[in-house]
Design goal:
Layout lengths: L7 E6 L3 E6 L11 E6 L1 H11 L4 E4 L1 E3 L2 H12 L2 E2 L4 E3 L6 E7 L2 E7 L13 H9 L1 E7 H5 L2 H16 L3 E5 L9 H12 L4 E3 L2 H8 L4 H11 L3 E5 L5 E4 L4 E4 L12 H14 L4 H15 L12 H12 L5
Parallel strand pairs: 1-4, 1-10, 2-8, 4-6, 5-7, 10-11, 11-12, 12-13
Antiparallel strand pairs: 2-3, 8-9, 13-14, 14-15
Helix pairs in contact: 1-9, 3-5, 9-10, 10-11
């Protein structure tokens, strides 16, 4: 059941960017061609949640450039509320490039000094109403990593949300190209202590803590203060824990072509289902199915499934038909 005092389900805070995704199938001697799309982990999650039927708003800073306008148009077309997005005439909108090879997908960023990296704790005065009227505030390790002031802003937003009855979700999303490991360890540990739901990946947590076993990572996460943990295992599914019980959700057998936004898709769909009252276990199963669908297309946003797509996929699985 939705809380009637909460007029939003999810507010996401972080950096949205313009994506240029390398196109495949070109001759080896041709220069790479890139398709322009959109990205940024918390923006992807916000769009995924909106496509799942959630009431969503985004909190960030954008440049006043053409790319910022494209992102504003995207969110409005995707039913993500943009009224709290701040515009910065002194800094650009960030962008990144995705290339593909036999080892997977690789990111190259052009985000240094971006508008989002200029987020300040005083921006919370513009975002107070959205945070306190939402069921969930969603952030990520990237929200913390893009600058010291953005990290301060993210941590302040998490504390502000908890003090006003808004639950906090944190995706680990470790990007060591953005900050040193020691700082990432300290800041993410602090942030986990401020969240109600932690969404780490196995790869991130091995880099952060040295732990390699799912049970140990989940125990570590609860020890830092997270009441609920969903450990993402990629193609192997996920393990959800409420501190008393753990449940494994197996992966789906699909033909994956690009995993660029799969974790963000997982987070957005998980929060959307929790917002309507699903159990942690049911929400994890739904999010796992949504993520499996998302890896079958290219780019971070275009393949994000809609609610009817996920329900159709789950219905097919329940009947024992091939995926």
């Amino acid at each position: 059941m939705k809380n009637p005092s909460k007029t939003l389900d999810i507010v996401a805070l972080g950096e949205a960017m313009i994506e240029f995704n390398q196109q495949l199938g070109q001759a080896p001697n041709e220069p790479p061609m890139y398709l322009q799309g959109f990205g940024g982990d918390t923006s992807n999650a916000a769009i995924a949640a909106a496509r799942a039927g959630a009431r969503v708003a985004y909190l960030s800073r954008l440049g006043t450039d053409r790319w910022g306008e494209r992102l504003m148009d995207l969110w409005q077309n995707e039913n993500v509320n943009t009224t709290r997005v701040l515009r910065d005439a002194q800094a650009p909108t960030g962008m990144y490039f995705v290339s593909h090879d036999a080892q997977g997908h690789h990111f190259s960023y052009a985000r240094a000094g971006s508008a989002a990296s200029h987020m300040q704790p005083q921006d919370l005065t513009h975002w107070h109403d959205a945070i306190v009227s939402s069921q969930w505030l969603h952030l990520s390790g990237i929200s913390l990593a893009i600058s010291a002031s953005a990290c301060d802003t993210a941590l302040a937003a998490m504390a502000h949300a908890q003090s006003h009855g808004t639950r906090v979700a944190l995706d680990s999303n470790l990007r060591l190209s953005l900050w040193p490991l020691a700082r990432a360890q300290a800041c993410i540990r602090q942030a986990v202590g401020l969240c109600d739901l932690f969404l780490p990946s196995l790869e991130d947590m091995t880099a952060l803590t040295g732990l390699t076993q799912a049970a140990d990572i989940i125990d570590w996460s609860h020890a830092q203060g997270a009441a609920q943990v969903v450990l993402k295992l990629g193609a192997d599914g996920a393990v959800a824990s409420d501190g008393h019980h753990q449940q494994k959700v197996p992966g789906h057998l699909v033909t994956a072509v690009d995993a660029t936004g799969a974790g963000d898709c997982f987070a957005g769909n998980l929060l959307a289902r929790l917002s309507v009252g699903d159990s942690l276990w049911d929400a994890t199963a739904y999010a796992n199915a949504a993520a499996a669908l998302s890896v079958q297309g290219y780019g971070a946003v275009a393949p994000l499934p809609r609610q009817e797509d996920v329900l159709r996929h789950l219905n097919t699985l329940s009947k024992g038909s091939p995926t």
